[in-house]
Amino acid sequence: MTTMASKRDYYEVLGVVRTASGDEIAQAYRKLALQYHPDRNPGDGEAVERFKEAAEAFEVLHDQRKRQLYDQYGHAGVEGGAPHFRDVGDIFEAFSDIFGGGLFGDIFGGPRRGGRRVHKGADVRCDVTLDLIEAARGVAKTVQFQRHQHCSQCRGTGAKPGTQPERCRYCGGQGQVLQSSGFFSVQRPCPACRGAGTVIKDPCPQCRGTGVVPDRVTREVRIPRA
User: Fold this and answer.
1) pLDDT at residue 188 in the model
2) Residues 154 and 79 placed together within one structural domain of the fold
3) What is the pLDDT of residue 210?
4) CA 144 – CA 86 distance, rounded (Å)
5) In degrees, to the nearest 5, what angle opens at C-alpha 127 toward C-alphas 126 and 132?
6) What's 4's DSSP letter?
7) Which of 117, 149, 165, 127 has the alpha carbon at shortest distance from 213?
8) Is the Cβ–Cβ distance between 153 and 207 less than 8 Å?
9) What are the backbone angles phi and psi of residue 53, rounded to the nearest 5°?
């Protein structure tokens, strides 16, 4: 177990001067996080400890209030306030909200949980049967498939016409709630609205509150020759 006396200076851990800006601190942490990331150092226990050490230093120095306490009193000033990560998963959960997934998610495929992201829609699959001549020469085919489109009755809101989705009272419309563990808090999607920030009290009868309805589409596609 690491004691305060044996802890390295947080600025030393990140390799920045004490007057470093918030951006410089974030950049330094990103560099170390990538260097010591477990995916790049499989089976290396020392790399994991460095990874956790850098995360702890960043968690304190990126927070203005904690940084002021640390600058004035050292480790004693943030005792109990600095996180003690049990494992790498704790770090991913904590900083996916701070960086919006950009720190780890964009590089290592980790999840993004903080804020809202527009997700790419699912691919639509449509099977087409060709004979040998069509496959050899290429052909234009008319195909039909089903996809979802915004409900015309509620215009995609999911709420019954004449009503509107209401702001979630549980999270105050933020879509996120703070869950505390000791002195450390982590943002998570609101369990009441599932991160939407709104709830539908009176759902649209046509789409049943989903905001989308199935739609059959006809398209002509050009299939190139094999």
Assistant:
1) 77
2) no
3) 85
4) 52
5) 140
6) G
7) 149
8) yes
9) -65, -45
Q: For the chain, what is the domain count?
A: 2
SS3 92: helix
Residue 221: CB atoms within 10 A of its CB come to 11
DSSP H or E run through 109: none
Q: Which residue has the tokens 């109990």?
A: 80
How far apart CA 4 and CA 119 sit, in angstroms, is 43
Query: Alpha carbon of 209 to those of 74, 169, 171, 193, 199: distances in Å?
Result: 53, 18, 20, 13, 10
Tell me the pLDDT tens digit for each residue of 157-209: 889 999 989 988 888 888 887 766 544 556 678 888 878 888 888 999 999 88
Tokens describing residue 156: 């995609």
**How sure is the predictor about 61, in pLDDT bands with cuts at 50, 70 and 90?**
very high
The parent domain of residue 171 ranges over: 143-223
Q: Which of 54-68, 117-131, 191-205 has the lowest mean pLDDT?
A: 117-131
pTM > 0.70: yes or no: no
Q: d(Cα 100, Cα 200) in Å, to the nearest integer? A: 26
User: Do 99 and 150 lie in a common domain?
Assistant: no
Cα separation, 119 vs 122, in Å, equals 9
4, 82 contact by CB (below 8 A):
no
Ranked by mean pLDDT, which of 11-15, 105-109, 206-210 comes out on top? 11-15
The residue among 14, 6, 56 whose CA lies nearest residue 35 is 14
